[in-house]
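TL;DR need structure tokens for one chain.
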Amino acid sequence: MDKQRPLNIALIGDHDPQITAHRAIPLAFELASKQTSHEIRFQWLGTSHITNTAVLEDFDGVWCVPGSPYQHEEGALRAIRFAREQHRPFLGTCGGFQHAVLEYARNVMGWADAVHGETSPEAERALLTPLSCALVETIDSLQLDAESLIAKAYGRRTVSEGYHCRFGVNPDLEKDLLNQRLHAVARDSDGGLRAVELQGHPFFVATLFQPERAALEGRVPPLVSAFVEACAEQTP
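>> reply
TL;DR here they are.
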């Protein structure tokens, strides 16, 4: 790859400077760029503007960012499906995690009635339900699967990360959801599912935690650097 060509990354979500993660992401890219020596260009794509996949074609990677409920859920799901099916590097954090598992449930598992409990709390198949203990402005330890992309990015099995989240995968549906290509790769101190990866995809990682927050403290988020490297490897 010609390293002089900038990487183009789509940020899927409705930009809001009041959201901590949205302030952290540009800093995370700045730090990752210095570490990886890749020039990075990123563009915020509001979910209501993703009416077809043509708007995504020129991006080297897709990051579905925190900030749900999104203005247009279908736009977010369309972008995630594009990244999954076209093998574009994908990172989903917080709301991005929630919608990544929702897209997979609907379009791979065939659960057409799967919904996000934040917007449809009374639905029979609410895939995302309130966490037993809301993870709002908290930090918790995580155990990573040794063979996961996340563990390779961090270089260790135990890490601590921050959250601002109230919804996670419905425990009653978790076993069936993870029965095929979607694998659990991180669990918290109580065994709660906190990250997944998609087998057979070059880089499809979704975390309920927000690794980008490290940038606010001047630290390079390892997972963001790994995502950037994956985007570079997939670029002709």
